[in-house]
C-alpha cells in the first residue's frame, strides 16, 4: 500500500527503533488508525533544518524566546499539510481521516490538553532526570552533542550529573511512581477493571501514557523493570495492549 504520510522520527544508534516518547505517540496513532505511512529518520542535530525544509511551524519557544522545532512531524502527501506536535497531529488525523478509529472523542481536545499540562508539570522535574540522559546515550555523536547543548542548559549541569544517585535516586524515583500512581487512580475512577482511561476502547490519553512507558523502557531499561510492576502491572499491561501498534513502516 502506498504511503499517504511521511512521518519524521528521531534517528538513534538502534536501526528502525523509536525511542522518544513524543514520537511514539505519533507512531502509535498512525498504526492504530491504519493509515499508510513511511518513516524518515532525522538526526537530532538536524531537526530544525529538516523541519524548515518541509515547512513546519515551530512547536514552542526556547528559553531565550527563539523558535524551537521538534519532532514528531508529519507531511500528508494527500493534502499537502505539514503538522508538528504529537497532539496536533492526533487532532489532524481525526479530522482528516474520520473513517478511522478516533483518538480524541468529540469535544475532548481541551480536556486532554489540561491532562497533558498537569502531568507534564510533574514529569518535567522527575522522570526527565532519567529519560533525557538515557536518550542522549542512544543518539549518534552529532545528535548527542546537540542534545547536550540544549538539555544541559535546561538542567544547569553536565548530562552525566543529571540522573540522581544513591538516596537521591530512591527519593526522586518514588516521585515518578507517585505521578504514575495518580494516572492509575484516574483510570480506576471510570471502573476498577478498566484497561484504558475510557473503558475497553483506547483513546489518545492511553496512547500518550503508553508512549511514556516506551520512553522509559527504551532509555532506562533497568527502571522499566521496576515500573512494569507498579500499580498491579498496569503499565506493562498497557504496553502489551499496544504491541500490535508498534510496527515501524
UniProtKB/TrEMBL annotation:
Pfam families: GST_C_7, GST_N_2. It comes from the Eukaryota. Gene3D superfamilies: 1.20.1050.10, Glutaredoxin (3.40.30.10). Residues 10-101 form the GST N-terminal domain. InterPro entries: Glutathione-S-Trfase_C_sf (IPR036282), Glutathione_S-Trfase_N (IPR004045), GST_UstS-like_C (IPR054416), Thioredoxin-like_sf (IPR036249). This is GST N-terminal domain-containing protein.
